[in-house]
Each structure stands twice: as structure tokens, then as C-alpha cells.
Amino acid sequence: MIPVWQGCMDANFQGSCLTYSLACNACFTLSGVWVNSLLSIQMLDSQARCNFWVACNCIEDGIKINSDAIFNLAATNYNDQIMVFNCYLR
What we know:
Layout: E1 2-10, E2 14-22, E3 27-29, E4 40-43, E5 48-53, E6 62-65, E7 69-70, E8 84-89
Antiparallel strand pairs: 1-2, 1-4, 3-8, 4-7, 5-6, 5-8
């Protein structure tokens, strides 16, 4: 398992943050305080891509992050809405 992404509760990767290291190609649910709390997301592995979803089934409304980072999800209207994610290797 490799570190794939980091998400933080504040813009610019400030505040409480978590790092996910995981096997890819499955739908994972955020838990506890992390549900609907992310405001910034950065990819940690250049080989991985992730989709972040606002619904619990990983198939409806969401945002794809191919590489790099989104410093403030408010600019995308996905701030404080992400519930689940799935990642894959490119």
C-alpha cells in the first residue's frame, strides 16, 4: 500500500489533515469528522488518480483529481461535501 492522497479540513492544507494509504479500485467511505469536512486535497503519488464523490456509491456527482492539489475546494463547489472516494493507478 502506498500513500495516495492527503485531505485537510482547511484551505491550503491547514487544520486537521489525514493521509490515506490504500489499495486501489474500490469505493471507500470517509468516517467520523472527515465526512463532509474536506476543504483541500493533494495527491501524494504521481501514479495514482482519485475521484471524490458527494454520494455514498462512488457513481454520481464528484470531482477527479489526476495529480497535484486543490488548495481550496470552495473554488470547485465541492468543499465540505465529499463522503466517499475511489482511486486507481494510471
